[in-house]
Specification:
The protein has 9 helices and 13 strands. By secondary structure, it is of the alpha/beta class.
Amino acid sequence: MDDDNKYGQAFILNAVSPGQVGTVAMIAGFLAELECYIVEMSQHDDSRTGNFLARTMFRTSASRPLSPEYIREHFAERVGDWPMTWQLYDPNEPIPALIMVSKADHCLLTLLYRQRLGELNIDIRGIVSNHPDLEEIAVAHGVPFYYMPVTAETKPEQEQAVLDLMNEQEADLLILARYMQILSDKLCSALFGRAINIHHSFLPGFKGARPYEQAFKRGVKVIGATAHYVTTDLDEGPIIEQVVQRVDNPYSPKDLASVGRDIETWALARAVKLHVERRVFIEGQKTIVFR
């Protein structure tokens, strides 16, 4: 029997528990009893928190199909009083997502392109914008476009409409693809761990308007982009991915902005991919990422 016919459905089991002897053996032993084959297992012991984190991708046996409900029920029994939090995922199931934009299109186009190629396992349920400029892109890709203008006075209503749309579309991820508005503490809290933003620097440098002008005036030698989870602390959420590019004296602010657009798309796309592949664990103010 060739390998393609040996195995059934794939699953990902993510677990976090206090570091103690036997955790890996417990997970591996459980899967062996179910005749599952471990494709990939990544582990990390966080000396700062004392937590042990593990991501295990496995496949069931073709001769013994198992439902996710069956696996969850029996793993919960195995965990018992073990102080462990865990989740079981189907890696083939696309994550429903909304994308928020303003006027810049480079990150949006990259996400749409990579999703179409099958590189990002997301189901884009809609594109939300506070400007109408990118509606044609949404229409061209067959994605619903939601124009939601916002002012200081209408911000609470607009953000509630975003939350309502996420619930209506059953979206589990919000991607801020150069959405040029600061989210309220209420929205950040509601979306903790489910909203990813791209920032045009190595955080926390060059905040605010015209970042590449700031970088040019400071004579930077390296520019970067940071993708992170959104929190109530502006641009200080747990970092998922960072990309850097060396620059030199001839680079003008326009040149820096051009390079910056490229690395913003790379950082955001990689961060979304890591998230949807369940490779990111949030540990306080930072992340543990299994690549």
